Amino acid sequence: MERVLALNNNQENRAVYVGKEPQLAYTIYPDMMPKKSRDDLVAEVLPKVYSWQAPDSLTPNLRPLWAYRCKQTETRNVSCMAWNKLNPDILAVAYGQFTFGQQGTGLVLCWSVKNQLHPDRIYEVPKDVLTLDFSKLHPSILACGLYDGTIHVYNIHQNKSEPIFSCSEHTTKHTGPVWQVSFVSTFNKDTMETEEMLVSVASDGMVNKWAMLKGFEKTELMSLKKSNKRMPKGPQQTLHTTIAHAAKRSEKAGLLHKYTKGFCFDFEHDSNANVYLVGTGEGYIHKCSCSYNEQYLETYVAHTGPVYRVLWSPFNRRVFMTCSGDWTVRFWDTENCQPFESLSPSMKAVIDIAWSPVHPT
Prior knowledge:
Helix content: 10-25%
Strand order of the largest sheet: 1-2-3-4
Number of strands: 20
Number of helices: 4
């Protein structure tokens, strides 16, 4: 009944969302067609759809269609979102805290465009969820990274709250917050088939690969050792130097002192992807290979603050971009250790970036 009510109340907005003409809104679900003539429907729906007017401004504007909210999401922060790679009507949302000392229980909800009143799946976890990603090869598989270093894998086709895989054991999980998990497609030359691996990076300085064929097995791809290269001078250097010194004083002695925090990574856009980039808390970008984990292929002295996102260009295999807590977005060529373009959108940390899937620049 909830879904029926949601469909009735949001037909015109759903039509806009899927790119249909407003007068064809009810053709999305023919069984929901009201007993009205087509002319009556057009006269009723069109004014609602086109009644919204963008503000008189040259700045870009977005039209709100609907909001996902329920009792479980009250007072919680949204920490990550991921669209299903086969069904664009399914959205997974992670809820969690990023601030140390404010963590509580985590929550993952799977929402459907067909029902904005209640999530289709609810997964409650013991710690805050920071990142998640859907598998492309198996679209029902959802991986989640937690603040305590645990990784959970769920099958959303199953109406079960328990994960199908978990690395909750202290001997296998990360020892720091997991900042990114991602399914990466690879090509197996022996079987001549496309396969997939789950990759994670965390504050413990480890980049790990997870296999789900026989249990949940971990393979270490790279340990992010601290670099001796010096950071470039910049307008925010004093601020981030102070932060870096404070972080150093707070670090414990021993193995933790050898590694730097990993925040993000991205693999080459290739079915035979073997090379990837990793962004660290020191502000460096490391170019690495899955075939060699002893040292970096290249190190880019990128930013004076933590690197929050690194992305290869979908059009040029030599170009990638980064964003950081030093307020900048920078563009790189793998053949040059200096950025060829740097932008500073505002005097705030740049948390995320994205390439246009249509326009290369």
